[in-house]
């Protein structure tokens, strides 16, 4: 279903505010700017900010959610006969492409410098898992139980969260690039293990 003009505008504003909050946090740290400075730079009123986010921390972490939503919108069609594990592998790789993985690595680094971000980053990971759960449920409504989806999504995305935490650097400047091949190989190892069991 095509997104209406109003929803596209809402998404654009949310993204611009989140990107500005993120950029300012990288430049100055969370305590180095005010919401007024954020909204001035983004070109919106403070009231607009409060319509979208409750605080700077939520806005910073929301950049990953915006990237996630963009990935869901651009989700490619997979053949109907794609096995569940292979489909979930492709879904995970797609979700992490187009910048989401890089944003998550940088958010991990920012949360080490700004501990107030940690609960918001945890919410981002939860939203990624819930989004994956819903997509799998919608794709395989009669082939897999909710409990089986919980196990698969929890295992795959839990492993990914651990990987991101381990590879993140102490500062966002040193976390500007991610070895995409290593990340893809890690995901393949996770899904290969899920296929064969333990």
* Poorly predicted ranges: none
Number of E-type strands = 0
Shape: globular
Termini, distance in Å?
40 Å
CATH level 3 topology of the domain at 60-196:
Tetracycline Repressor, domain 2
| H-E string | HHHHHHHHH
Précis, in short:
With 198 residues, the chain is mainly alpha-helical. The chain has 9 helices and no strands.
Describe this structure in words.
Helix 4 packs antiparallel against helix 6 (about 100-115). This protein starts with a helix and ends with a helix. It has a domain at about 60-195: Tetracycline Repressor, domain 2 (Orthogonal Bundle). It has about 200 residues and is mainly α. The longest helix has 24 residues, at about 5-30. It has 9 helices and no strands.
